[in-house]
């Protein structure tokens, strides 16, 4: 039985994860990868997130990323590794993370005791992460921890993100939600990204989206009509997906303890507020 307050791990994740994911929206990442010859946004994303695996093929990326169109993945993987090696991409990623965090948070926060504390807490949480059935986490766990506190914090945020993300994919699979259905049902909760952003970034067509919506309606999970809204059954299923994810992601936060989880959440929220205020996330990615 968990000793944490209800959903404490989810709240902590929601505070810490964006400090990792803001990198994918950062012009600094595009600039660093551009120096290596990787300029197409999808190629940059696949390379950045998959580099920890080594020079894997499209099947591995499709399987572990879950909700991207396999055809889009195959356009760029494994061809991207002939442009730049995974080791080069990992170096560029870390340089971009450094530049991004310095730009979004400012040098005072970067050098603060609070950042050093957040790094210590986040790294301690990762001590209880487990690799079994978590391929993206396991690959990233083999990477060295950076020396500078803000990069150590970013590295730990990456580990915690992928640890939870791998569990989330297991929960989606158990719920019977295929890649597009998972995107549609998440958007229908009101918490997803803008549909146009999802379609362009994930490589799906509007017809794919409508077909998935139809399947969800047939299952009684999506309400009839043009408005994208979950039924009571759909709401319950999405809630169970999140609860199952929480159950599979409790260990790092139990290891940290309730008081330190609350403190890491507090620190993460403070950093996130500053980063968001400085334009960490593009407006076009939100809304419907």
Automatic annotation (TrEMBL):
Pfam families: HTH_67. InterPro entries: HTH_67. NCBIfam families: SCO6745_fam_HTH (NF047719). This is SalK.
